[in-house]
Amino acid sequence: MPTYRIYGFILDSDIALPALPQVERSDADVTICAGDVPETAGLQTSFRNWEAEPGRFFAIFHETGRFLVTGGNTIRYHRFDTADDSQVVSVLLGTCMAALLMQRRIVPIHSCSVLTDKGAVLVMGMSGAGKSTMLGGLLSLGLPMMADDVTGLVLAGTGAPTAVPAFPATRLWKDSLDYLGHDSTDLPRVRSDMAKYYRSVPQFHDRPEPIRAITYLQASNRPDPQMGLLEPEKRVECVSRFIHRKNFIDGMQLRRWAFETVTKTVRHVPIFHLLRPSHRVEPSELAQMILHGIDQNETVATEQI
Fold first, then answer.
1. Are 122 and 215 spatial neighbours (Cβ–Cβ below 8 Å)?
2. For residue range 91-146, what is the model confidence (pLDDT) as tens digits?
3. Which residues contact 30 (CB under 8 A, 6 or more apart)?
4. Alpha-carbon span 262 to 46, nearest angstrom
5. Can you tell me whether residue 69 is helix, strand or coil?
6. Domains of the chain as residue ranges with CATH
7. DSSP 32
8. Strand partners, 275
9. 8-60, pLDDT tens digit by residue?
């Protein structure tokens, strides 16, 4: 059974996870394996295609399979006959990984992240805001990637908000690859029925790091980009909004833990707001603007928090 590293833990999986780095055999923290998963788990909270309770999460995807995540250390799946490996892996690394991280007390933040000389910088944004383009720009400046889509958030033993890296690959739609000047011809698909691809990233930082800043990226009709500090009263709501699969938190009765983690994070980390202009801006130019804005405003931000 191949062994991988993701979000700082070791994972054994009986299904290949093509984007994850394999590591030498060791005692695994998490196991993914095929097995019996009931048609319903009968858990305390039920919502649409998932059920949950403390330490347990169940989901059914009608064209893919049934999945059960327990104790922060096991993901079991029952594959439907019509599903191929890529469809199963997409659920394992998406929905199931979000539930697993929560069970392991890691808040999954829907953001890309890179490492700077003063710590990790996270960029959050809704679909279409330009996170993939922004990440491409940051990488073009030589910054190591920590995550392309979901960054882990924990409070270190000192209480410092800390970013936990994912795995060394981006997941990009074909139009984003084209925009960034990359060829998709030989890249593996995230799902066989989608024009979305894994692209490996050679510069990857695989250790948790203190968070230097968080930027909320938003598309706008402005002619020019605008960046500033997010108003203090909006910061908790903004970061909470970007918890990946945040409805699972209530299902597993983790609201208090998640709220305390986010609240302590915004007390220690400056939160910026970047309005992206309507016209095309080179990714590296936008990335430089984020880094320059953080440099220029860190002193003011520190005084506010």
1. yes
2. 999 999 999 999 999 999 999 999 999 999 999 998 877 888 899 999 999 999 99
3. 9, 10, 11, 12, 72, 73, 74, 75, 100
4. 25
5. strand
6. 3-103 (no CATH), 107-304 (3.40.50.300)
7. E
8. 218, 226
9. 999 999 999 988 999 987 789 999 999 999 999 999 999 999 999 999 999 99
Q: What is the per-residue pLDDT for 120?
A: 98
Show contacts of 5-12: CB within 8 Å, 24+ apart.
5/167, 5/206, 6/97, 6/166, 6/167, 7/97, 7/101, 7/106, 7/152, 7/164, 7/165, 7/166, 8/152, 8/164, 8/165, 8/207, 8/208, 9/104
Which residues, including other chains, have CB under 8 Å from residue 196's CB and lie 6 or more apart? 171, 172, 173, 174, 189, 190
Tokens of 28: 């695994």
pLDDT digits (tens, 9 = 90+) for 269-292: 999 999 988 777 888 888 999 999
Amino acid found at 82: T
Phi, psi of 244 (to 5 degrees): -70, 125
DSSP H stretches of helix in the chain: 85-91, 97-103, 131-140, 174-179, 235-241, 247-251, 255-268, 283-304
pTM of structure: 0.93
Q: Quote the tokens at residue 98.
A: 């979000």
184, 197 in Cβ contact below 8 A? yes
